[in-house]
Automatic annotation (TrEMBL):
Pfam families: Sulfate_transp. Keywords: Membrane, Transmembrane, Transmembrane helix. It is a multi-pass membrane protein. InterPro entries: SLC26A/SulP_dom (IPR011547), SLC26A/SulP_fam (IPR001902). This is SulP family inorganic anion transporter. Residues 15-381 form the SLC26A/SulP transporter domain. The keyword Transmembrane helix applies. It comes from the Bacteria.
Length: 490
């Protein structure tokens, strides 16, 4: 007899929990990988490739031990636009460059600064993506071709719905709507039923219904794993001279990095294990994206849905996310033909549901009650993304956030209390900068010269040199006219 078994258990004390969690994450990730790829306008197998790299490469690296990476709904719109504008061969170049930039930012220790990005801008970005994603995927459910612009997609929805209900696409609409219904109602079912992940159950039921009822709906096109992998050619790298493509790379980098690091912060709140090392996580995401680019696959981010499923399934170490990559690889290698049976309306329903989760309705309501400026930034960012494009919309949001910060930094309030007798009380609060100096002096110089004044500066958060000098000069002038000296409280 040997003691290899006990030794193995001692070396991997959480192997059982991680193994079980990896199966759950695999079952959640499988339909999402395929759905994101189809919605992005690329072969379905490329979504699986990105999921495999997210598990086997990014999953092995240090950073955030429990969050899971793969193709994300949040980048679907941007990938679709990039493929439409520059072509599929250029996608590998874009993703490779994105990975290289992420690695550079991680090495330069810039990961922590992504946490300084306004949460309203990030939520507005995700809300805009969600709205465009919902609008685009509804056309897939209706069996119709979606218009190119975001506003066109939304404006054309009523007509497309009428055509779908009255035309030959009614089966497609019913299948997509049924998928959404299953996802919405899945949480209300008994716990034993919910051991099967909702997305897998929804796609499985839709596939079964399409086969048994012989429904006339479109299904996923299968190209084969090796046939779908198309490394970028040397000529594709010539596109890097295109200013538009460089802007797309910047957008990919900022959005993928921000989404991954915000996801890491959210996952950290779900467990008591090691905290995320943000710079290392950025390097891990960059390494994964660089390899995905070399394979011509989709970009990756950390995905909160899979990460939360990983934690809730009892994962304890990074082994669970690595194993989920192994299961994706085995499926892609051994059972690729199964993809050909999956109805596209079912995948569209999954992404409509995922897109709805990206729109933070409750956050908008609470922000409007407490911080209307932040709510305005969120809404304007989302609307700009729908009306113009992803990159410009994010820039609009960032500009608004900077303008709001500058406004708050220069906000100043002067409150004067005159009870008719005794000293006049003047309270300054906020941030006294040279930008507000004329207003400060006009208000103070308008006070009666023959009355004593008490100037309270304790409410100031900031008092720059110019304002301090001007206030000292005013105090000297006011005190020199024969009244009591101005009493200053700091």
């Amino acid at each position: 007899m040997t003691d290899r078994g006990p030794r193995r258990i001692a070396k991997y004390p959480h192997l059982r929990q991680d193994f079980a969690a990896s199966l759950v994450v695999f079952l959640v990730a499988l339909p999402l990988c395929v759905g994101v790829a189809v919605a992005s306008g690329v072969p379905a197998e490329l979504g699986l490739v990105t999921g495999i790299v997210g598990g086997l490469v990014t999953g092995l690296m240090r950073g955030s031990s429990l969050q899971v990476s793969g193709p994300a709904a949040g980048l679907t719109v941007l990938v679709f636009e990039a493929v439409r504008e520059f072509g599929l061969p250029a996608l590998g170049v874009i993703v490779l460059a994105t990975g290289a930039l992420q690695i550079a930012m991680g090495v330069l220790r810039l990961g922590r600064y992504f946490r300084a990005i306004s949460v309203s801008v990030v939520e507005g970005m995700l809300a805009g993506i969600g709205l465009v994603l919902i609008a685009g995927q509804l056309y897939s459910m209706f069996g119709a071709k979606a218009p190119e612009s975001g506003l066109g997609k939304i404006a054309g929805l009523p007509g497309a719905l009428v055509d779908a209900v009255s035309g030959a696409a009614s089966a497609s609409l019913a299948l997509g709507a049924g998928t959404v219904a299953v996802l919405v109602l899945w949480k209300r079912l008994p716990a034993k039923v919910r051991t099967v992940p909702g997305p897998l159950a929804a796609v499985g039921l839709a596939t079964l219904a399409a086969l048994l009822l012989d429904l006339p709906v479109a299904t996923v096109e299968v190209h084969g794993l090796l046939g779908s992998i198309q490394p970028p050619s040397l000529s594709a790298f010539g596109e890097l001279a295109n200013i538009g493509l460089l802007g797309t790379i910047v957008a990919f980098t900022l959005i993928a990095s921000a989404e991954s690091l915000f996801s890491a912060a959210a996952v950290d709140r779900l467990h008591d294990g090691p905290r995320t090392e943000y710079d290392r996580e950025l390097v891990a995401q960059g390494a994964g994206n660089a390899l995905c680019g070399l394979l011509g696959a989709l970009p990756m981010t950390a995905v909160i849905v899979r990460s939360a499923a990983n934690v809730q399934a009892g994962a304890r170490t990074k082994a669970s996310r690595v194993l989920h990559g192994v299961w994706l690889l085995l499926f892609a290698a051994l059972l690729p033909g199964v993809l050909a049976y999956i109805p596209i309306p079912a995948l569209a329903g999954i992404l409509v549901h995922a897109g709805a989760k990206l729109v933070p309705v409750r956050s908008i309501v609470s922000l409007w009650r407490e911080h209307r400026g932040e709510a305005l930034i969120l809404v304007v960012t989302a609307v700009s993304i729908v009306a113009v494009s992803m990159f410009e919309g994010v820039l609009v949001g960032l500009a608004l956030a900077v303008a709001k910060t500058a406004w708050e930094a220069s906000h100043l309030r002067l409150e004067v209390v005159d009870k008719g007798a005794g000293p006049i009380q003047a309270y300054l609060s906020g941030n006294a900068t040279f930008l507000k100096l004329p207003k400060i002096l006009d208000s103070l110089e308008s006070l009666p010269q023959d009355r004593p004044v008490e100037l309270d500066l304790s409410g100031l958060h900031h008092l720059d040199h110019a304002c301090r000098t001007a206030l000292e000069t005013w105090v000297e002038r006011h005190s020199a006219v024969g009244t009591e000296p101005v009493k200053v409280t700091a």
